[in-house]
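Worked example

This section walks through a single chain of length 478. The input is the sequence exactly as stored; nothing has been trimmed or padded.
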Amino acid sequence: DGGYILGGSSSSSISGDKTESCLGQDDYWVVKLDASGAIQWQNTIGGNSTDYIYALQQTADGGYILGGSSNSTVSGDKTENCLGETDYWVIKLDATGAIQWQNTIGGNHADFLYAIHQTADGGYILGGTSSSGISGDKTENSLGVDDFWVVKLDASGTIQWQNTIGGTDSDYLLSLQQTFDGGYILGGWSFSNISGDKTENSLGVNDFWVVKLDGVGNIQWQNTIGGDSHDGLSALQQTADGGYILGGSSNSDIYGDKTENSLGDWDYWVVKLDAAGAIQWQNTIGGNYTDEFNFLDQTSGGGYILGGWSISDLSGDKTENSLGNDFWIVKLNAMGAIQWENTIGGVNLDQLYSIQQTADGGFILGGLSNSNISGDKTENCLGDYDFWVIKLAPESVSTGEAPTAPAGITIYPNPTIDAISVRSEAATTLCLRNAFGHVLTTQNIQGQGKIDISGFPNGIYFLVEMETGIGHKIVKNN
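Given that input, the structure is written out below as tokens.
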């Protein structure tokens, strides 16, 4: 509907914007905004202890799926006791924010859920980290200190399959997504050498670890990517060309897979892989101090928007001094070169955790803040830390045509309501895929043509040139 869904954790009682008191030490807090940023509804969801939400997504029925971790027993909204120290806690809401079902999933130790996505069959894929042995819902022992733990649910929240993936040390899964072929791509941090499921030794203290699964959770390939020190992957996405974009934080210098020295204490590190997991390009992005990467999104035109936080001043890739601890967003083109960047914050601590391109070509940013009115902050902090949501305008005034369409192809209008017009310099075959990668239609274009998408729901689609694999992100929005 053009609005926004926010999810995070809260320990606040009724005050400020909060309409329900905290049920435990920390609760899930879900807030629905309209297109102009006004609160429409909210729900505080929790038990008698600590409940942290890490991921949420709108579902095909207009509701929402929430994923995080809980150590609450039956109390408040919690209908199952904790199975170990901490468990996955998955909650399905309807379109108004009311709970439809929930599932507490875990073993006898600590299980932290960091990523959740609805799958093409209407179910859900969960990803996180586990140190549990066989117990509770866990069907495999831990391979090391901590492992990747992937759990597939059906549409009602019942477990269909699971896989514990790791080496003999610590492996932390932070991001996952269903891929075009119906499998899954996983990404996180690894400290393990060759052992268990790990087929490559660590290159530094810890590395990016990317694992590709088939549709039932079997490993197809993996890649350990890093330099001589610390490299931690925080987010990944499959790209329109069938490859993958990885983003994380690094303080490694040139070594192993790293082709640029660190610019400060920590930098953003972005790595583009092809469909088989081989590196195509990379970019180390930062200033003279600490820049922590958290999230990315592929943009219309094939570029990328990166988000995190920075305390670096004007130096390296930073063109603005830090105001405190600030949001830092960086826009890349399709080959990883910086197009622009922006430092946004107040005089205290402001950390960005999520960023997405919006239907109008702008961006929505979400994070936390304890800054009062100062710098870019126009409202005082209401408590210790608040949610801080920022809407950015489109990069430039739209002419109705995509500003950076794939080479030789012009696609317009974008966003669209019912059809995409295509002009091509040569005959080409295009396929339209949905966000799950399923092919919806294939069409031959001879110079000029139109693709009807009126029968498809609002959302994100990818128009892919079959000969080259070059893709373009399409937004359908009535």
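What to look for: The first strand starts at residue 4 and ends at 10.
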